[in-house]
Structures are given as C-alpha cells and as structure tokens.
C-alpha cells in the first residue's frame, strides 16, 4: 500500500501498473499531475493467506482544494508479491 501511495505521489504509472492485479488493472493508468498527495494513514490491515485488506486515508491538495480519500483496498499475493485487486471508497 505504501509503495502505491508513493507511486501516486511521484506520478509513477509504471509502478502502479506493476502493482495492480492483471484481472482488474485498467488499460490506461493516468496519474493527475496537478494533485499533490500530502499524507497517508493506515487505519487497519489484515492478512488471510494470499489475501489481504488495508483500510487507509490519503490526504491530497489540488491548487486551493484539499481533500481526503478513504478506501478499504483488497490485495492478493501473486508470485510472492502483493498486488492491488480493488477497493471500496468510503
């Protein structure tokens, strides 16, 4: 989760694609250059074999606007690596 947050922060679409499950990965991953990610808080995490969930809050700023994304993300272990499957935004 932290590496994906960092990838969003620095605009690394290649890492986002590599860390996304191929079954759910969109064809085009675009990172918004105008959004500055300003903080990540992991609220909860659990692991059950090759499945995991992470609940987090990520703060952002875009010009004068500020906001926060809250999501419960699902991950799957593939080939020894955790990949993002999908998530529910609160």
From TrEMBL:
Pfam families in UniProt: YchJ_M-like
Stretches assigned to the YchJ-like middle NTF2-like domain: 1-87
Protein name: YchJ-like middle NTF2-like domain-containing protein
Organism: Microbacterium testaceum (Aureobacterium testaceum)
Phylogenetic lineage: Bacteria, Bacillati, Actinomycetota, Actinomycetes, Micrococcales
């Amino acid at each position: 989760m932290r590496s994906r947050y960092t990838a969003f922060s620095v605009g690394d679409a290649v890492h986002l694609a590599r860390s996304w499950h191929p079954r759910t990965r969109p064809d085009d991953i675009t990172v918004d250059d105008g959004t500055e990610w300003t903080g990540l808080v992991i609220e909860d995490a659990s692991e059950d074999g090759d499945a995991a969930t992470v609940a987090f809050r990520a703060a952002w700023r875009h010009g004068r606007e500020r906001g926060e994304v809250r999501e419960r993300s699902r991950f799957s272990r593939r080939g020894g690596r955790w990949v993002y499957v999908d998530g529910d935004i609160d």
